[in-house]
Design goal:
alpha/beta; Aspartate Aminotransferase, domain 1; five-stranded mixed beta sheet; globular; seven-stranded mixed beta sheet
Length: 389
Amino acid sequence: MSKHRVAPRTQAIHGDHDPSVADVAPPIHLSSTYRAADSAEFAQIAAADRPSRFYTRYGNPTVARAERLLAGLEDCQSALLFASGMGAVSTTVLALLSSGDHVVAQRDHYMGTLRLLTELLPRFGIAHTLVDQTDAAAFAAAIRPETRLVIVETPSNPMLRLTDLAAVAGLARARGIVTLADNTFASPLNQRPAECGIDLVVHSATKYLGGHSDLLAGVLCGPAELVDRVWSQSIVLGACSNGFDAYLLLRGLRTLPLRVERQSETALALARHLEGRAGITRVHYPGLSSHPQHELAERQMTAFGGVLSFELEAGAGGARSFVDALDLVANAVSLGGVETLASHVGSMWHAADGQGAMPAGLIRLAVGLEHPDDIVRDIERGLAAAAKA
C-alpha cells in the first residue's frame, strides 16, 4: 500500500496488505501448530516475541493480518487480538498491575469491566477508585502515589456519557500513569483515543469491528512496547484468538467505514425523532445539542455512533411492553451489527457496583443498517404499546 496516509475507508480494505500473498481475500490459517525447517529454526522461533508461525496461542498469520489492520485504524504502532473484548480488557489489566497497585476508573463502565475492578482485582491486592467520568478534576483528585492505571470508556454504556480523553491523558502522563480507553461504542472511525494522548485502546471487536453478530473477539492497540508486554502475559492467560475468527473480523473490517457512517447518521435521525416525543422523558445521545457534553463530543469525535438510549415515561412496565411489541427490531443484547437491537436496560443491568440504579424505563437502542423509516415504524409500534402499559 502507498506510504502516504490514506482515508480510513481505503485503509480498511488495504491496511493489512501482505505482498507475499497473491490472494485478494486473506487466506485462513487454521493450523494450531507449524513445522520448523530444522532444530535451529525451531529454537529461534520458540524464543521469539509474537511469532506468527509457531503455535496459534503465540500467533497466527491470519491473526497477524487482522492485528496489522486494527493498529492502522487506531493509528497505533501495534495491536493484539483476543478471543473476546473482556479477554482483551482483563489480560491487559492483569499484565500491567501488581499487588499494591491502584486503578482509577469511571463509574460508568461495561458490566464486565466493573466486575473485574470490584470483584476480581481486590482478590489480588489491587485497589480501585471510581469517579464521575464527566469531571476531569475527579480523576486527578483520585490519583494516589500507587496509581498505575487509569481506565476510561467513552461514550459510556448505556447512558452515553463522555470522558474528556485529552484531559485525562494529560494528567495521567504527567504522573507516569498508563491510560486505557475502551473505544467500542465510538469505533476508530468516530474517535481515536491515541490522537488525544491515550496510551492503550481496547475494543470488543464483536461489535462494530466485526459488524455481523457472528464472532467474538477483542483487540488491544497501542505502543509496541506496552502491547508486547501484554502479549507475554496473554500466552499464559490464554484468551487468544484464532485464524477463523480473525478472517471473519477482516471480512467485517472491509465495510466498517461504510457501516459506521450509515449507523451514525441513522442514530442521529432517530434521536432527533424521539426527542420531545410524547411518552419519552429524555433521550441520551451525544449528537444532540441538548446532550450536556455535546461540545466535547464535537471536539473529540467525528460522528456520534450508532447507540442511543431513551427513558420511557411508563417506567419498567412500559419498557417491557415496548420491547415485546417490536417486530423488526430484535430484543437482544450487544450492538454494532447490521441489525437494529433494543434492550430494556433494567432487565440486563443489575446495578453493578459504581453504576447505581438505572432509570426504570431506560431503553438502549443499537442501530443497524435497515432503512430509517422502517426502524421508526417499529419503534412507534413499541411506543404505542408502552403507552397502554
